[in-house]
Amino acid sequence: MNLLIVESPSKAKTIGKYLGAGWRVIASVGHVRDLVPENGSVDTENDFAMRWQIMPGKEKQIKLITDEVKKADAIYLASDPDREGEAIAWHILDILKDKKLLAGKKVYRVAFHEITKKAVQNAIQNPREIDQNLVDAYLVRRALDYLIGFGISPLLWRRNLGKSAGRVQSVAVKLVVDREREIEAFHPIEYWSLGAECMRGTDGFSAMLSAFRGEKIEKMSIANQARMDEIISQIGEPVIKSSVINIERKKTSRRAAAPFTTSTLQQEAARKLYFSSKRTMGAAQKLYEQGLITYMRTDATNLSADAVTDIRSYIANTYGDKFVPKTPNVYVTKSKNAQEAHEAIRPTHFDTGTPELSGDEAKLYDLIWKRTIACQMTNAEFDSVSADIETADRAAIFHAVGTTRTFDGFMKVYTEGRDDADASAESKLPVLNVGDAVDITNLMPEQHFTQPPARYTEASLVKKLEELGIGRPSTYATIMSTIVDRKYVEQDKQRRFHPTPGGWVIAAYLAKYFTDLVDVNFTAKTEDTLDDVSNGRADKTKSLSAFWTPTNSMIDAARDIKTTEIIDAINEVMHTHLFGEGDGTCPKCGGKLGIKLSKYGAFVGCANYPTCDYTQRLSATDGPTDAGEKPAGSSVDLGNGISFKVGRFGPYVTDGKKNAAAKQYTAETITLEIAQELLSAGANKPEPLEIGENPATGKMIYFYPTGRYGAYISSDKVNVSVKEQPDLETAAELINNKKPSTRRGGFKKKK
Question: H helices of 186-276, where?
Answer without folding.
Answer: 225-235, 262-273
